[in-house]
Amino acid sequence: MNMSEKEIERLARVCVKRGGNLSVMTKLMYEAEGLLEAEPNNKKQLKVIADSLDQKLKLVKSLDEEVIETCNVKEIVKEIEDSENVP
Predict the structure, then answer these.
(1) How wide is the angle at C-alpha 84 spanned by C-alphas 49 and 63, nearest 5°?
(2) Which of 36, 39, 46, 47 is the most buried (most CB within 10 A)?
């Protein structure tokens, strides 16, 4: 089954959103790591980062599902493998 131009564009946008959110998650993880080293007792800020990571993870998982539902059958294995690369 061939995808229409509109479906291809939609899939590309979802993949870019997923990549952007994964990038933000990586930055948040580095921020948490640095905070744990510099201010391990700053539980308030660590909680904010943990909550942000949780929200981003949920969003990325939903984007992963959208990608899998939208992509061609031949691409599903690759997309599932890519979705496993969450930081």
Answers:
(1) 70
(2) 46
pTM beyond 0.85, yes or no: no
Phi/psi of residue 81, each to 5°?
A: -60, -40
User: What CA–CA distance (Å, rounded) separates 58 from 55?
Assistant: 5
Total domains, the chain: 1
Does 78 map to a domain? no
**Dist. CA 25–CA 10, nearest whole Å:** 23
Flag whether 63 is in a domain: yes
Instruction: Please tell me the distance from the alpha carbon of residue 68 to that of residue 33, in angstroms, as a whole number.
Output: 32
Q: For the beta carbon of residue 86, count every other beta carbon within 10 angstroms.
A: 15
Cα–Cα distance for residue pair 8/14, rounded to 1 Å: 10
Amino acid at 45: Q
